[in-house]
Amino acid sequence: MVVHLPDGKHVIIDSKVSIKAYDLYCSDENESARQLQLREFLKSLRAHVAGLSSKKYQENEKLQPPDFVLMFLPIEGAYMLAVQQDLELHSYAWDKKVVIVCPSTLFATLRTIASLWRIEQQNRYTQQIADEGGKMYDKLVGFVQDMLDIGKQVGRLQQTYDQALNKLQTGAGNLITRAEKMKQLGARASKALPKKWMRRRC
After folding, report:
1. Rounded to an integer, what distance in angstroms lies between the CA atom of residue 29 and that of residue 9?
2. What gap in Å lies between CA 180 and CA 175, rounded to an integer?
3. Which of 11, 38, 136, 162 makes an SS bond possible with 3, Cβ 3.0 to 4.6 Å?
4. What DSSP character marks residue 87?
5. Between these two residues, 9 and 104, which has the higher pLDDT value?
6. How many DSSP H helices and E strands does the chain contain?
7. Pairwise CA distance, residues 28 & 160, whole Å
8. Which helix (H) or strand (E) holds 1?
9. What does residue 100 show for φ and ψ, rounded to 5 degrees?
10. Is the pLDDT of residue 201 over 60?
């Protein structure tokens, strides 16, 4: 089955585990026969893990599952017997990207997966915020540099303006003074300089 989680995520659960050997183990009264059935049961679980791993359900392009499949063992007693008798069963399954669950651990496992996905999503958003913040800071540095360059250009422009003004009306032998002297000497002109320029000269 496929469990649909929030944010379009999915978890694939396989529940086709054979418990025939487990049933025989529970019903047989002969101890040697029981031990034989127990070995068959554990062997069948490992075989199912290997078969489930080879199907690669988690690579389905239409789904967004984690990188593993849940293998559901529907009988709590069968699960407890398996993990007690085969201490390496969980690690064997995990190496093959299979997680074995039972009725008491299924929902807790699903909640854990959903929580981890939320944390991953939050971390992804945090990284995006950090990336955008870095880009904005770089833009700010560039803007500040541009403003400093504009300030320098304005300063140079003011300096050039002051130099030109000095030649025009404030420096020794400036153009306005010379022009007024020429007018006083009889140069004919139909226009007059603005009074404010004359005041500045004085």
Report:
1. 47
2. 9
3. 11
4. T
5. 104
6. 7, 4
7. 108
8. none
9. -90, 130
10. no
Alpha-carbon span 65 to 68, nearest angstrom: 8
Q: What is the largest CA-CA distance in the chain?
A: 143
Question: For residue 152, which amino acid is it?
Answer: K
Place of tokens 């069948």: 44
| Whether pLDDT at 202 is above 60 | no
Q: Name the one residue in this structure whose structure tokens are 């359900």.
A: 57
DSSP designation for 190: S
Q: What share of the chain is helix, strand, coil (3-state, %, to 5)?
A: 70, 10, 20
Note the pTM of the prediction, 2 decimals. Answer: 0.55
| Pairing status of strand 9-14 against strand 69-72 | parallel
Task: Tell me the pLDDT tens digit for each residue of 146-155.
Answer: 888 888 888 8
The three-state secondary structure class of 112 is helix
The two three-digit tokens of residue 48, written as one number: 């199912």
* Residues composing the chain: 202
